[in-house]
Amino acid sequence: MKINTLIIDDSPSWREILTRLVKMNPLLNLIAVCESVLEAYTHIANDSIQLIICDIEMTPISGLEFIKNLNNPPLVIFVTAHQSYALDCYEVSPLDFLVKPIEPPRFFKSIEKARQRLTEAPEAIEPYFYIWENKAYVQIHYKDVLYIKAEGNFVQIVTPEQVFMPAGTITKLEEKLKPDIFLRVHRSFLVHRNAIAKVGRNEVVLRAGQEIPIGDQYRNKINQKQIEAYAVLRG
């Protein structure tokens, strides 16, 4: 399997470095190397791009804005000299976030993650889970959940349409849920990754407008989870 890859970076020296790294990896098929996102649009429209390796600070359109504006974007690895962009990138769920200078082993680890993501069987993850509520099993789709909150001996599962209140603890429920879908941000809260609009220092803001507090003991873990699963800060 070859992964069709597009490089976008406005620095000539970094285009050369990234090209060399891509050509060193037999998993990658380099489709094009672009100096701006405007140039990249043609390849996105006409080529079967599976992976974009993209700088962030570019003009007139940043790499982050470019990815935000794509419908069904391919996998994205952001590369930048500025580690501070990691939280900004979170909302587009990149595969990885690499801080320049990039060591080849770290880059190749990102490519292995891309291979695993692209070869995952779609049916491997069921799109729903069950809870026991009001003397019956209730099916809840993962995509419908905004967040989960501990409420004494019960757990609130909040969706846009209704709130479920099964008995139990949030820790026990977390153990039965599929990994990498929910993020533990507080001893009393789990949030669905795709529901997140912004991550601040003290709160997570959801796309629906809710603000969920971040517990002190989870702050560093949130950054680490971003690194390993979606947006990915490894420093």
TrEMBL record:
Name of the molecule in the record: DNA-binding LytR/AlgR family response regulator
Family annotation (PROSITE patterns): HTH_LYTTR, RESPONSE_REGULATORY
Positions of modified residues (4-aspartylphosphate): D55
Domain Response regulatory: 4-115
GO molecular function: DNA binding; phosphorelay response regulator activity
First and last residue of the signal peptide: none
Keyword ATP-binding found: no
InterPro entries, A to Z: CheY-like_superfamily, LytR-like, LytTR_DNA-bd_dom, Sig_transdc_resp-reg_receiver
Keyword list, A-Z: DNA-binding, Phosphoprotein
Boundaries of every HTH LytTR-type domain copy: 129-228
